[in-house]
Amino acid sequence: MEKLHINLDEKSYDIFIDRGIFNEIGKYISKVYKKKKIVVVTDTNVDKLYGDKLLKNLKMSGYMPAKVVFDAGEENKNFETLTEVYEKIIDSEIKRGDLLIAFGGGVVGDLAGFAASTIYRGIDFIQIPTTLLAQVDSSVGGKVAVDTTRGKNLVGSFYQPRMVVIDPDLLKTLDEREVRSGMAEVIKYGAIYDSEFFDYLLGKEDLKSSMTDIEKIIKKCCEIKAKIVEKDELDLGLRMILNFGHTLGHAIEKYYNYGKYTHGEAISIGMYDITKLGERLGITKPGVSDKIKEILKKYNLPIEDEVEIKDLIEIMKTDKKNISGILNFIFLSEIGKVEIKKVGEEEITNKLFK
Ligand SMILES: NC(=O)c1ccc[n+]([C@@H]2O[C@H](COP(=O)([O-])OP(=O)(O)OC[C@H]3O[C@@H](n4cnc5c(N)ncnc54)[C@H](O)[C@@H]3O)[C@@H](O)[C@H]2O)c1
Ligand SMILES: O=C(O)C(=O)C[C@@H](O)[C@H](O)[C@H](O)COP(=O)(O)O
Ligand SMILES: [Zn+2]
Asked: Where is NAD(+) annotated to bind (predicted)?
């Protein structure tokens, strides 16, 4: 069993990683929650696979769980779903002081986490991530949000969970496309922070061989994310590096109304594109984009799309790294090293992508 700790003073918490840990969930919850009532928020797919089991496990540990289920998919990470989720939580007689469990992939974690941060002005929550992407990234660090018609994650907050419980066995039912999407965020950590980890991922024979080491990979990613979030919880500086590939990636997701690419696939295209741009601008060492291409290809991730940059520019301006009209673009200087470049809104067209 691996236990990591993320140190954020009174908001600090543990991340537990182990195969089969889901079956003993009550034991872990009791470390941070002493009362009885819990609301589990999940999506339709996760509910079908694991909903009954989670409720049974919770009841066996003496909890009184209720369940709120919403339709799976990024297209439902919005205010309409959020309103339904609030109302169902209220109807299930959950009060301030009770606990919410976000049980699912990144969509559930982001939406349920935002519900937890706002309902009754905030109730405690725990993350039980069920996709690779959520286990390596979205369940850690407290960014919670929903999309609006104008763009990704535009309404949200920073709200740390009380605990993250990661069971890699839950990934056995995940389809391959979703595993590959999670790998895009895994590759991101190597690219921005740890060239040795990058080379290790590049040296793997294929996705299957990475999956045999998945516990080690999840731990590595959570360690990196924890270190970064500890230094900059509110995304004002260092944390922005976790957004490598995301300015373009989020714009691509939005451009296709979340229907063409998963989040991981979109940021895969974004990581390759921004690295090529970095080379053209002399920020990134020559040859780095070939390495990024090689690793993304190895994990069967997309690297380009036919959308024209002019169609993405307006969407990119809604990015949350746009601070008072100055965008922060994340470039690699080399593998494992990052440069944040400030670009005025008007310079995006006439300087960056000219
Ligand atoms: N908050 C953050 O720091 C952060 C970080 C990265 C990504 N995100 C967000 O996360 C979202 C993407 O998350 P995702 O890739 O997990 O997508 P997702 O939550 O949509 O899950 C992908 C699919 O897998 C299904 N699923 C989940 N667990 C399963 C399991 N164990 N077995 C079978 N099917 C399962 C889901 O129902 C869904 O259909 C995006 O909205 C992105 O913006 C947030
Ligand atoms: O935790 C972070 O910080 C990240 O940027 C992680 C990203 O992988 C994630 O997609 C995040 O939701 C993007 O945040 P946003 O602020 O660009 O919406
Ligand atoms: Zn991401």
From this structure: 106-110, 130-131, 143, 152
Which of 116, 146, 173 corresponds to the end of one domain? Answer: 173
Q: How far is the CA of 164 from the centre of ligand 2 (A)?
A: 17
Does the Cβ of 107 fall within 6 Å of ligand 1?
yes
CA-closest candidate to residue 105, choices 21, 163, 173, 188: 173
Q: Is the CB of 253 under 6 A from ligand 2?
A: no
pLDDT digits (tens, 9 = 90+) for 31-79: 999 999 999 999 999 999 999 999 999 999 999 999 999 999 999 999 9
pLDDT in tens, 208-246: 998 999 999 999 999 999 999 999 999 999 999 999 999
pLDDT at 21 over 90: yes
- Which of 306, 239, 322 has the alpha carbon at shortest distance from 273? 306
Residue 332 CA to ligand 3 centre (angstroms) = 16
Mark whether 106 and 194 lie in a shared domain: no
Where in the sequence is the domain holding 135, given as residue range(s)?
Answer: 2-173
CA pair distance 157, 234, nearest whole angstrom: 9
117 lines ligand 2 (CB under 6 A): no
The pTM of the whole model exceeds 0.95: yes
Atom 5 (ligand 1) nearest CA: 138
CA distances to 1, 263, 277 from 133, rounded to whole Å, are 20, 9, 26
| 150 and 256 together in one domain | no
Structure tokens at 343: 């670009």
152 appears as a binding residue in the annotation? yes
